[in-house]
Amino acid sequence: MPKQCLATLLAASVISIAAPLASAQDNSSSQPSTQQSEPSQDTGRGHHGPPDPAQRTAHLTKQLNLTSDQQAKVQEILQSEQSQMQSAHQDTSTSQQDRRAKLMDIRQSTDAQIRAVLDSSQQKKWDHLQANREQWGRNHRGGQGSSDQQAPPPQQ
Fold this sequence. Notes:
The protein is mostly helical. It has 5 helices and no strands.
């Protein structure tokens, strides 16, 4: 009897551990088929690529309490940024350094356009989010700054 209980308990444990793993594999294998163009969008910020403009707009809506008019404008700005970034990434006629500079210019332009849509209190929050993102980037590129800050930058 104790051996049978132990075997049952062991089987239940294995199933409870294996089921979520199998489900995670199914989810990860189904995602590439719905996002076939994603691999070309990799910006070096991780292996999943940047969030889409709708996700970024939703995140900023939570962070900055955007109005519906602001949401529409921000999403349009982010869609334009995504298109420009994809073009820059696919441009193999320029050097990596030139592409990186182009990507930074696109990002700065996008940041300025979004900031222009915000009211003064939202701009203060935006500036804080940007400062956090820049600090995180400095800490994770070249080891500058303190190494104990490991939180990812706020998604935009």
